[in-house]
Amino acid sequence: MFDAMAIKYTFQGLLIYIAIVAYLSAFFATLLGGKKTGQIFFITGFAVSVIAFCYRWYDVRHVPFQNMFEVFLSMGMMVWPLSIFCRRVLKISDDAADMMIGVILLFPTGFIFHAEPQKLPPALQSWLFIPHVAVYLLSYVIMAKAAVQAFRQLKCNIAGISENIVGYEEGTYRLTCFGFPLLTLGLILGSWWGQLAWGDYWGWDPKELWSLVSWLIYVGYFHFRYMFGKKHARINSAFAILGIAAILITLLWVNLSNIFLGLHSYAT
Amino acid sequence: MNKLGRNIIWLALTAIGLLMIFSVTGAFWGAEGAKQFFNSIPLKIYWCILVFLFVIGFVEFPRLIRQPPSFLVHSGCLFVLIGAMLGSDTGHQLAKRFLWIDKIPEGFLVIYKGQSENRVVAEDFEHILGRLPFSIKLNDFRIEYYESDKEFVPQLDIETSDGKHLQLAAKIGEEISLGLGQEKLKVVRTFTNFKIRIENGEKIATDEKSSGENPAAEVEIISPDGTTATCYVFERFGGHFQNTDGLQISYAPCPPRMIRDYFSDVTVINDGKNAVSKTIEVNHPLQYGGYHFYQYSYDSEAGEYTVLSVTSDSGLYIVYGGYWMLGLGVLWQFWFKSIAGYIKSKRKIDV
Fold first, then answer.
1. Which of A66, A124, A126, A188 to mutate to test the interface with B (most CBs of B within 10 A)?
2. With CB atoms counted within 10 Å of each terminal CB, which end of chain B scores lower, N or C?
3. B104-145+258-312 adopts what CATH topology?
4. DSSP per position, A53-99
């Protein structure tokens, strides 16, 4: 997979590179104090990534959630609407970090993962395919934002570009509360789908086990926070960072390494 | 929070941490190793302790019962655990011993076209695990393929004795020379369903297009001295022809096709009567008599039989109930309560 950079000389590739440049420009513009310009670039990046997503959908004739290229493309598209939602509803504003998350998510689609269209194998032809993957991807982006808040809380001497209306610890908690139901639904829907496709709602597959680990870390976070509140804010933050580490292993390591062979190998 | 309550939460956190460690360990062992590990005696004890911990939690924290979202989340997890225990091998053994419910936890049914079967076999498809109280008849098995995006000409792939690779379009009359002073190959005929018929004691190759598929090509091998020999090259059954001189030929009548879906048309026969008919395909299992039947495998050479995986539904609906409770509880706890609070505060501001 990583033997060579997978640069794409296609229209699809062009769209992805434009989106990356737009997110990157948004990030630097925001860092330099051009908040409005940053927002314009951010929206442009979002609009282009939506076009890239739709183009891919048209090209492969199914919702592009099948492989790593499509998964990262989809997540790259989710960043801007989530950023707006978090600012307006959850009162968490961290634009520069969101823009950088967009760059990080789209970078592998542009330079690492191959984009050859694949047909859906029989197991993926289920109505559960879209909700199962969609809720997981949404929760992953939200948990990534929660981890950024947690990281800022741990290193609160690092000045944030835009200050939250709530504190970083509270921001982590609000984002985790927002993402955890989606993580739970992803686990439940996946289990239900496993029962329909393979005859087992729990197959002890490495990907299933790592997704359970991710879920359990957040369960631990909620229990710990219930017991101690904000008294041990640093431990609360450590839970959120540990959670995103487990998510990264679930999403990347399980699929890309040969260590964890299992039923989810089509996602590579 | 009193000391006991605090200790229970610490115990819960320890149990969560242990389950995380077990899951990470299991992930390195692969699905089969993890399954054995999570069904081992120490882990069985762990599961029982976890159930006990939930029960103690309900007793010590009345809030878990009084508050519907908390109750749904925690009792949902408890339901999933209990359902999984009932559906395990040990659960089946206990049900047989104490409740006289004798069900096969899981296995496979190998059914040939037109035949009915009730023997559930192990993964080797030979060792019989038990018999179902009803039979399943396979009416038909078929595979649907994706259409190829590229135009494809049927072809013969040839490997000569000196390792040369050649290709010949499988069209009647097409010829190819294997090299200077070597044999020539000529395509005489192609078949979609090759069959041998015996007429007056002679074997005659025929193409019976109406029933089944067995693609093949008739090839004439012309020696440099002019003598000829006829050979048949099949797509299936070993996949290639090889003569004594080391010449290898394989036949590809169509491009490499990707399977879209598998279909097994089956009928359940109970007490000699047709009870249910259904087409089983991936993601669309058959549910009957306390068992679920899934498309698992098939006869890849001749398409004469299908393999269905059989799983008992013991505890399954308790697990599903737990999922509903957990899903609803989590949404209620983290989303609906916040939305309700948001609306309430908005109204207050408006007033």
1. A188
2. C
3. Tick-borne Encephalitis virus Glycoprotein; domain 1 (2.60.98)
4. HHHHHHHHTS-S-SSHHHHHHHHHHHHHHHHHHHHHTS----HHHHH
